[in-house]
Model the fold of this input.
Amino acid sequence: MGSFSVDDILGPDGRIARRLPRYEHRQQQLDMASAVAAAIENKRHLMVEAGTGVGKSFAYLVPAILAVAEERADDDEDRPRRIVVSTHTISLQEQLIQKDLPLLNSVIPLEFTAVLAKGRGNYLSKRRLGAALSRAKTLFAKDEEESQLDHIKGWAKDSGDGSLSDLDFRPLGSVWDEVHSDSGNCLGRNCPTYDSCFYYRARRRVQNAQIIVVNHALFFSDLALRRSGVNLLPKYDAVIFDEAHTIEAVAGDHLGLSVTSTQIDYTLNKLFNERTNKGLLIHHGLTEAMQQVVHCQYRAQQFFTEIDAWLAENPQSSGRVRQAELVPNVLTPALAKLAAQVKNAGEDMNDDSQRQDLTSMSDRIYLLADGIESWRTQTIEDAVYWVESSQQRGPYRRVKLSAAPVDVGPVLRSELFQSVDSVILTSATLAVGGTASFDFFKSRVGLTRCETLALGSPFDYAEQAKLILVSEMPDPSDRRNYDRAVVDMIRRYVGRTQGRAFVLFTSYEMMRSAASALTRWFTQQQIELFSQSDGMPRNVMLEKFKQADKAVLFGTDSFWQGVDVPGDALQNVIITKLPFSVPDQPLLQARLERIKEQGGQPFSEYQLPEAVIKLRQGFGRLIRTQDDTGIVVILDPRVKTKHYGKVFLKSLPDCPVVTESYRDGSFA
Done:
């Protein structure tokens, strides 16, 4: 690593300690940083579980910075050595870019560049903005859309980076879709705004950067595109996944397929909306193509109604489609004809910008047509196919066609782990059981050869936290009595801490009914209730919860992880039920079947370890700093009554465990 070591930066007498007056040296952080440095230098893969409070971000950023600042790429002397850092949540990305990297840049006396890479659709296209402004009257049916377009026009003149996060309001999808940068609708160097283009300016920064921060979604979009010879990210030498416990799910989403009836509706309406008499085709007076749009809308309704009818007739299927060619495809030929008409119309245009607009729309329609037929004929090998249908909206219910690999491991093994010199995966929760085994996670992501390191938390859980188990609760299989008992216990334990509580649920239905049953009591207690079922954006809800004097937050899946509430605002986390995934989800069903076919035990090899990792994430919401204290309450009796309960308890931090009785509140 040349002239500096991780110890010089992170050690008790290191440069950070000299800069920050209250800096606390953590041995776990130093151990992790040394392991990451060795993995990068020796071109090896590494898996690190590091408990809350270790300071993971510094532990991987410091060795990454030292590696890129002091060395060139092995394969090309002209390009910088690059390391990609991928996170799951926006909040962690912002922490890395806005706090951690600027601080490290100020204390490490080496030159390095770091950028946040965003997907292309986050950037404004000045050419497309001009085109949208010129045809706003035929494009938009609502005054609000035109008003937002004018606002974007003013913002674009002063914006530093031209990205969505720099805009002071959230534009309607119909508006942003007309003005964002789009690979299919880009003139590249032929564009009159190329030199000042926000996207290309950002792309040049990414090409020259040594540390590139991305989210998992962008990373796996890039990985999927690389299979067809296209790439979003420049070549990199190593990748570090923080919040790595989520990568199987994100990789599955991006290596699969998804088409919705809403996408079809939306795209057709952009071309021509018969009801409002607006759309791109109106602007160009393309009457024949307009008639074909109406025909496509009729065919779409026919196609998706047939699929919805199949779903209604086969409730036992859970939406899983086991055979190809479920219904005749009346839609793809109609869309293909429309795409050809739009493309031909574009080729007749003299104006480059107008030609590109129509060519881009044609490509988008072809892509949707192809996606529908790929799903119907089940062209992705070793994948599970399913269909979902939501509440009635418009002429037919919203239908979503999906496909995902049963196992992402083989793809990740060949296209990530065997293609990249060093892959580092870290999270507070990767291991299962008292022996901290990484086997489950390694098998799910297809990683056979790697070094592992399990580091505890520097927090004193024995002093800071208490785990409360509740005996004599009804079994969760007795839904009615269990749900009623959960409401009673939420009242008891939220009352004990006067709010300041997260209540984590495994289903929206249970969360909604508990919120309904407890609203009056919360009002009487002057405890403010924030429930995810109310539809408030997650980040807004979290900020309001932090600022409230006495509040309780009801959350499902997304609140079990990646949420940080340090201090007095959160002193109590109530787990209503052990977080086992529902086995009627088609993807999970297929994965469990695969394990069984291979002679394995689906429950012990998949469902249990997956639930243990999620419970550990939920527990981890409580203690975020060395000053935090509080209780975690598990209401599910199976943690004591079932043999597998021990696996959950052994996987949690070592803290006092108290059993209290559901019946009378006394100690059992």
Summary: The chain has a mean pLDDT of 89. The chain is about 45% helix and 15% strand. The chain has four domains: 26-113+210-251+408-455, 120-202, 256-405, 461-661. The CA atoms of residues 73 and 81 lie 4 Å apart.
